[in-house]
Amino acid sequence: MAGWPFSAEGIDVTDSTTPDQNLAGKIALVTGGSRGIGKAIALELGQRGATVVINYLKNHTAAQDAVEELEALGITASRIKAHIGDEAAVESLVGKIEDQFGRLDILINNAASGVMLPAAELSAKHWDWTMNINARGPWMLSVAAARLMPAGGRIINLSSPGSTRVLPSYFAVGVSKAAIEAVTRYLALELGEKGIAVNTVSAGFVMTDAIDAFPDELGVKDIASRATPAGRPILPTDVSKVVAMLCGADAEMIRGQVVMVDGGETLRHA
Q1: Quick check: 24 and 75 in contact, CB under 8 A?
Q2: Is residue 186 flagged as an active site residue?
Q3: Domain membership flag for residue 5
Q4: Please, are residues 160 and 206 in contact by the beta-carbon 8 Å criterion?
Q5: By residue range, what is the domain housing residue 88?
Q6: Of 26, 39, 56, 170, which is the active-site residue?
Q7: DSSP string covering 212-237, please?
């Protein structure tokens, strides 16, 4: 949204403080990290000391711009193209990270896609595309990445309130988000034996390019731009800070949980 970051009701929502370097020395992979919430997460992890690898699928320019923005801040960053919904591409992505760094400490499964149609209008092809990127891919990538993770590793999946609430034309995406939350719970137990913590961050409506996927008549842009019960809209940085918190040592005992970042918006009936 034009003009962000901005002040809501006279409250400055920018953050001029320098984040603690509590992730110094960590290697982090952020899927879909070139734009929107993914880019905000990449910046936050990098500012906390992590070396950041941005995964992207199509937009080479956006990915390179994101890497250059990170590097301008003194953050070590690189980009790797890979289709998260493709098993061979997932293995290749993890192989490249192993060759370059020898390990991976943090995986952020942020990449998402989907076809915005009611169930009756959705084709099997639409379903497969959405599920492969939003649920199957994060599962495969988490399992592959865990092979490179030492004890203390972190996997954070991104979800949305549509996993539990019915949103118009959100059928395939909502089901895929419910699936990734279930994947989180199962992996939290299976990978917990290796000392890897797995959690989900569920973001409310945030004004990014992803909002453009919703038909205008649904009014989602209006919801994303209005003040939440917290007094202002949700910003990408609100989400990125919670993700970064879950990657730190203070979150060691948070496992298999869905942490909602919505400013209280989902407490409303409409």
Answers
A1: no
A2: no
A3: no
A4: no
A5: 22-264
A6: 170
A7: GGS-GGG-HHHHHHS--TTSS-B-HH
36-47 helix and 60-72 helix, angle to the nearest 10 degrees:
30
What percent of the chain has pLDDT above 90? 73
Instruction: Say which of 26, 39, 56, 177 is annotated catalytic.
Output: 177
Domain annotation covers residue 238: yes
Domain for residue 35, yes or no? yes
Number of domains forming the structure of the chain: 1
Q: Which residues contact 81 (CB under 8 A, 6 or more apart)?
A: 55, 56, 57, 60, 63
Residue 124 belongs to a domain: yes
Say if residues 105 and 154 touch (Cβ distance below 8 Å). yes
The 10s digit of each residue's pLDDT in 3-22 is 333 333 333 444 545 678 99
Look at residue 101 and give its three-state secondary structure. Answer: helix
CB 254 within 8 A of CB 192: no
The Cα–Cα gap between 270 and 265 comes to 9
- Of the candidates 105, 108, 98, 93, which has an alpha carbon nearest to the alpha carbon of residue 40? 108
> Active site includes 56?
no
